[in-house]
Design goal:
By secondary structure, the chain is α/β, with parallel strands linked by helices. The chain is 47% helix and 15% strand. The strands form 2 sheets. The chain has a 6-stranded parallel sheet with strand order 6-5-4-7-8-9, sandwiched between helices. Helix 6 links the parallel strand 7 and strand 8.
Length: 261
């Protein structure tokens, strides 16, 4: 038995990462499951650290693999021009850990000044989602909540956005960062945890807890050479291929096979 841990947000009460029933189940059985596994794998160094800190696992018991981005997200038709008007994009659940309410407060003055919009996709919601939705609806001239969209529509939204806003408070890996980058969309994300680990040096990093830092990130992106940001993002997304993920996983499984004789 090999466990693969995608994140341990269940153990952080402050970020309210998951619905309470999921949290109760996972926090009850995570340690037991790891105890009975031959090896535990995490999808980032950040998640490995969480597993050591929160589950009490020995660092030698945990291997690190990674996620990957689907080839279909890459596009040859992405332009590099910077639109003066247009939209920012957020894709994901309306969970408190995604920091969406703070993002809306930060971005609203910029939307009004530059005649831009914020487009929000995603279906699942809990915690402060009602407050977030109400805030968005009160500013519907600048913010659109699309709800669930197909993968094809999501790709189109990535490709047309000024930037993908993802200053999440907690992630186990941060796959949407790579999806956006593969699509040629510049990314603004958190300077902490797995987000910065996945983005590496290819995104604008901000402190997700500081309003002024997120605002500065938005302003900074406007001043950067857009084509260079896009290229760095595409190169980063290419690095996280499924071939790389497979090779890392196979290395870890070989360790398990050796240990089992």
């Amino acid at each position: 038995k090999v466990n693969i841990i995608h994140d341990l947000g269940y153990f952080d009460k402050e970020i309210n990462a998951y619905p309470w029933a999921d949290t109760l189940y996972m926090t009850s059985f995570f340690k037991l499951s790891c105890r009975h596994a031959k090896r535990t794998l995490s999808i980032s160094e950040s998640t490995k650290k969480d597993a050591i800190d929160r589950l009490g696992l020995d660092s030698r018991e945990i291997g690190v693999i990674s996620g990957g981005v689907e080839e279909s997200f890459f596009s040859d038709s992405v332009g590099s021009e910077h639109p003066e008007s247009g939209y920012y994009l957020y894709a994901g659940s309306m969970s408190p850990r995604k920091n969406l309410k703070r993002v809306i407060h930060v971005v609203l003055p910029i939307l009004k000044e530059k005649k831009r919009k914020l487009v929000i996709t995603g279906l699942k919601s809990w915690g402060d989602a009602d407050e977030t939705r109400k805030l968005a609806e009160e500013n519907s001239a600048f913010i659109s909540i699309l709800g669930f969209v197909s993968e094809e529509e999501l790709k189109r939204l990535y490709q047309g956005a000024i930037a993908f806003l993802y200053p999440s408070l907690y992630e186990g890996f941060g796959l949407p960062i790579l999806e956006a980058q593969a699509s040629g969309c510049p990314v603004i994300t958190s300077n902490r945890g797995a987000c910065s680990e996945t983005a590496r040096d290819s995104a604008v990093l901000v402190d997700p807890m500081r309003v002024e830092s997120i605002r500065d990130g938005l302003i900074r992106l406007d001043d950067l050479d857009r084509s260079s940001v896009i290229k760095a993002g595409v190169d980063n997304a290419r690095y996280f291929s499924w071939k790389r993920a497979y090779d890392l996983l196979n290395e870890q499984l070989n360790l398990v096979r050796s240990a089992c004789g």
